[in-house]
Amino acid sequence: MIRENIPLQNKLKLYLTLLFVYIVLFEFILPVNKILPRPTLLLESFVSIWFEYNLLYAFTITASVVYLSMLFGFIQIYIGAARYLKFYTLIEGSIQSLGLFLFLTPFFFLAVFNFWFPQNVIAEFLFSFLAASFFIFQKLIHESKNIKEEYLLVARNLKTSSYDTYQDVHWKSSLPGIFKQLRQINYQLWFLILTYEFIGDQRGVGAIYHLALQYRDFTALFTLAIMCGILIWFGDLLIKQIHSKFIRWTP
Fold it and tell me: Do 62 and 186 belong to one domain?
């Protein structure tokens, strides 16, 4: 089934309609509720929350951790793609026998990492870097198994070394799929890092969520959600732009 893109004009109409319904419903009909805050309170919170929770500092930490770890994770997978893929082919059987670990929830790894390492930005970045590298390499493995046979045949006929085959054929053929997956990884990393900061004594947005929940600051919770959504959306747009400008081929 082919998914058709919704025109921008129709998207704007939909968003404006939802905004109108939200304002009418929660400003005039249900001003006191525990579902969504009043629009006027939400607007006031956008200003006050920056000073009350030192939000600029928190978002700088969290966004830097997410996007720098994704960037460095991508670079290190690119540099070591051939070696990683070759090593994976040697131990693939052993890894499959450890399938039990696939049933461990991400929360387990978050908690263990918080327990093992000091609670600071460096440890947070290390966790995000390892997670980003794992997600990217996982996609690289998946894509490299679906490479067209004619590409590999040409490489063999040209007597290309195994290293060059992995680095040039496998990696480049996998790039379109990896960049599509990066949009999902963007969301996954935000979720993981917010949770990491929430359960640990960190200084990022997740810690602000924890604080707002303790204070039962209903409006702050939704304000944070909107701001996080905007940053994730900008990250998604950036990944799409890089994909369309530099990855113009299909495997």
Answer: yes
